[in-house]
């Protein structure tokens, strides 16, 4: 007997991408429309929340229309509406939440609230099913965390950044090097042409926890460049980038390995915007060779950034588990996974 | 015609269901609570009271601004998405006009205003003719001083809206009490029934292009425009 198809319509608007997707059975993308505002925020050197919110409201209907057309489905075919309700920029989130509620109400569909970070993890679901228990290393512009997944719909933080997220550090360092926002891709490219000659600090690497810190690295980087400037010395940008990236990757890999030793899991998931970084991907791949029983699942590079497909994948699992929101659903800008006890 | 009217442009929230210009159900709140939490449960409740199915709706009318940016976006996103997804008509009405629309026939110039902070207001000016507001001065974001200059030429002016009372002293410093007056409390809050009546007569808009009338650029854009020109740039938003 043919398995009946189950469709989730998903909305994502937590930062500077408006996205609407339609996902079949939790792992097949029928449509994933993404309208990115990068060109707008480039003017300001970073995302301006009010500008982002204004763009979302301009885009949201067009994205839904394109998604329905591309997927060739009607509202009658849908089973649920999933939406990112946090974390993120409150004004931006509210547009997606209001849009999703309107569609759910209009067509009497269940509304499924999705944590944006669960979405990032489930971007990996488009490669292969997740095997539990799993550990996710989530690295993005706003977050750097290790998340333990005991079973579907269970997300527990075992370690997180105490200050800047890794992606934030990339953008700040990029600014020093005169690289346009967002800087991650360009630093990654430069890093491959240079050597780790500066040996920047690896913060908290020896501490007995799974937390991260990147603000010290950022300061060390800035001081090094300023000091050279004062002496009228020009430092090699490729070496600077390589040294910075090496420090970030070392810390992430080291803490991940430590976590894998403490929590025996079947799978390691690498996800989040910075998970597109090739230096990080290579390193994680090589570290995982020491863990024969742990399979590696990396979110596809093109789904590492924010998109609604990943929200649809996480939303499908939540919908199956009976998670529902009513019409009073609000944006929760500081939404976080619980800490693992 | 079945109309849903929504005004979330400031702290008061007002929604109404109208059928052929008759009021079926309405709810107005003035509680300091997020419109995101309040709006849709109330819409749901009014539909239940009126025994309407979403599909029966013919038109959504929304207060398009000016007002609080976040408040406007909640109302406008909800309205445009409902209209789009149900394949119904959408109409936007000035949030200031909604207030003016509640004022009785008068020879005075009616000036609804919202506080926009730092001695600025969102304001427009209307004459009420045959029970309907007729725009005389465009809705705009303007300093209180600038507004007073615009009003010099008019013999009699009545200010409306709950925010106008906080400017009462300053306005009376500039104008005589013969020239200006302040609308009574019962006209201070927007009524979605009036919004619905005003919106029923308008031509429906392009839903995809519909956005709030903020009447003001963001600070970041204003600053940027001081040193840059808005020409020949790549599209700010791109589908990838
Ligand atoms: Zn993200």
Automatic annotation (TrEMBL), chain A:
<dbReference type="GO" id="GO:0005737">
    <property type="term" value="C:cytoplasm"/>
</dbReference>
<dbReference type="GO" id="GO:0005506">
    <property type="term" value="F:iron ion binding"/>
</dbReference>
<feature type="binding site">
    <location>
        <begin position="138"/>
        <end position="142"/>
    </location>
    <ligand>
        <name>substrate</name>
    </ligand>
</feature>
<feature type="binding site">
    <location>
        <position position="171"/>
    </location>
    <ligand>
        <name>substrate</name>
    </ligand>
</feature>
<keyword id="KW-0479">Metal-binding</keyword>
<keyword id="KW-0808">Transferase</keyword>
<keyword id="KW-0408">Iron</keyword>
<dbReference type="Pfam" id="PF00814">
    <property type="entry name" value="TsaD"/>
</dbReference>
<keyword id="KW-0963">Cytoplasm</keyword>
<dbReference type="InterPro" id="IPR017860">
    <property type="entry name" value="Peptidase_M22_CS"/>
</dbReference>
<dbReference type="GO" id="GO:0061711">
    <property type="term" value="F:tRNA N(6)-L-threonylcarbamoyladenine synthase activity"/>
</dbReference>
<comment type="similarity">
    <text>Belongs to the KAE1 / TsaD family.</text>
</comment>
<keyword id="KW-0819">tRNA processing</keyword>
<dbReference type="GO" id="GO:0002949">
    <property type="term" value="P:tRNA threonylcarbamoyladenosine modification"/>
</dbReference>
<dbReference type="InterPro" id="IPR017861">
    <property type="entry name" value="KAE1/TsaD"/>
</dbReference>
<protein>
    <recommendedName>
        <fullName>tRNA N6-adenosine threonylcarbamoyltransferase</fullName>
        <ecNumber>2.3.1.234</ecNumber>
    </recommendedName>
</protein>
<feature type="domain" description="Gcp-like">
    <location>
        <begin position="28"/>
        <end position="312"/>
    </location>
</feature>
<dbReference type="InterPro" id="IPR000905">
    <property type="entry name" value="Gcp-like_dom"/>
</dbReference>
<feature type="binding site">
    <location>
        <position position="306"/>
    </location>
    <ligand>
        <name>Fe cation</name>
    </ligand>
</feature>
<keyword id="KW-0012">Acyltransferase</keyword>
<dbReference type="InterPro" id="IPR022450">
    <property type="entry name" value="TsaD"/>
</dbReference>
<feature type="binding site">
    <location>
        <position position="188"/>
    </location>
    <ligand>
        <name>substrate</name>
    </ligand>
</feature>
From TrEMBL, chain B:
<dbReference type="InterPro" id="IPR022496">
    <property type="entry name" value="T6A_TsaB"/>
</dbReference>
<protein>
    <submittedName>
        <fullName>Glycoprotein endopeptidase</fullName>
    </submittedName>
</protein>
<dbReference type="InterPro" id="IPR000905">
    <property type="entry name" value="Gcp-like_dom"/>
</dbReference>
<dbReference type="GO" id="GO:0002949">
    <property type="term" value="P:tRNA threonylcarbamoyladenosine modification"/>
</dbReference>
<dbReference type="InterPro" id="IPR043129">
    <property type="entry name" value="ATPase_NBD"/>
</dbReference>
<dbReference type="Pfam" id="PF00814">
    <property type="entry name" value="TsaD"/>
</dbReference>
<dbReference type="GO" id="GO:0005829">
    <property type="term" value="C:cytosol"/>
</dbReference>
<feature type="domain" description="Gcp-like">
    <location>
        <begin position="31"/>
        <end position="224"/>
    </location>
</feature>
């Amino acid at each position: 007997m043919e398995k009946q198809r189950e469709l989730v319509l998903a909305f994502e608007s937590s930062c500077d991408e408006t996205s609407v997707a339609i996902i079949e059975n939790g792992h097949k993308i029928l449509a994933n429309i993404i309208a990115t505002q990068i060109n707008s925020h480039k003017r300001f050197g970073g995302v301006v929340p009010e500008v982002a919110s204004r763009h979302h409201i301009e885009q949201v209907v067009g994205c839904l229309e394109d998604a329905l057309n591309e997927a060739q489905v009607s509202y009658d075919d849908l089973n649920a509406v999933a939406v990112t309700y946090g974390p993120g920029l409150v004004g931006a989130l509210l547009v997606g939440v209001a849009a999703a509620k309107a569609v759910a109400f209009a067509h009497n569909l269940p509304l499924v609230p999705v944590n944006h970070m669960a979405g990032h993890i489930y971007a990996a679901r488009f490669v292969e099913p997740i095997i539990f228990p799993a550990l996710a290393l989530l690295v993005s512009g706003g977050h750097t965390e290790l998340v333990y997944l005991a079973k579907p719909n269970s997300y527990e933080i075992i370690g997180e950044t105490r200050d800047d997220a890794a992606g934030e550090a990339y953008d700040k360092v990029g600014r020093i090097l005169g690289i346009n926002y967002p800087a991650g891709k360009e630093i990654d490219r430069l890093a491959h042409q240079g050597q780790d000659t500066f040996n920047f600090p690896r913060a908290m690497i020896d501490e007995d926890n799974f937390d991260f810190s990147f603000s010290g690295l950022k300061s060390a980087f800035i001081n090094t460049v300023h000091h050279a400037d004062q002496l009228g010395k020009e430092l090699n940008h490729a070496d600077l980038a390589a040294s910075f990236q090496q420090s970030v990757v070392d810390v992430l890999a080291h803490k991940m390995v430590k976590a894998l030793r403490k929590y025996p899991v079947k799978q390691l998931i690498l996800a989040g915007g910075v998970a597109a970084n090739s230096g990080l991907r290579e390193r994680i791949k090589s570290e995982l060779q020491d863990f024969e029983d742990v399979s590696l699942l990396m979110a596809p590079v093109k789904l590492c950034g924010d998109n609604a497909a990943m929200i649809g994948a996480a939303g499908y699992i939540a919908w199956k588990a009976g998670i529902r929101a009513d019409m009073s659903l609000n944006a929760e800008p500081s939404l976080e996974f619980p800490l693992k006890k | 015609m079945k109309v849903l009217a929504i005004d979330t442009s400031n702290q008061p929230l007002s929604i109404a269901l109208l059928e052929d210009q008759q009021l079926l159900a309405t709810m107005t709140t003035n509680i300091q609570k997020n419109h995101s939490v309040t709006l849709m449960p109330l819409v749901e409740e009014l539909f239940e009271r009126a025994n309407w199915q979403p599909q029966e709706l013919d038109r959504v009318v929304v207060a398009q601004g000016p007002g609080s940016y976040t408040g406007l976006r909640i109302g406008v996103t909800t309205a445009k998405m409902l209209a789009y997804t149900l394949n119904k008509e959408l109409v936007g009405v000035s949030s200031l006009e909604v207030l003016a629309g509640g004022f009785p026939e008068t020879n005075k110039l009616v000036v609804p205003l919202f506080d926009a902070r730092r001695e600025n207001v969102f304001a427009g000016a209307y004459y009420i003719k045959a029970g309907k507001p007729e725009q005389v001065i465009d809705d705009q974001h303007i300093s209180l001083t600038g507004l007073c200059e615009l009003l010099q030429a008019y013999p009699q002016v009545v200010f409306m809206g709950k925010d106008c009372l906080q400017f009462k002293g300053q306005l009376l410093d500039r104008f005589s009490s013969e020239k200006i007056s302040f609308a009574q409390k019962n006209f201070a809050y927007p009524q979605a029934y009036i919004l619905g009546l005003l919106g029923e007569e308008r031509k429906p808009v392009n839903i995809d292009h519909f956005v709030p009338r903020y009447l003001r650029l963001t600070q970041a854009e204003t600053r940027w425009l001081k040193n840059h020109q808005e020409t020949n740039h790549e599209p700010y938003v791109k589908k990838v």
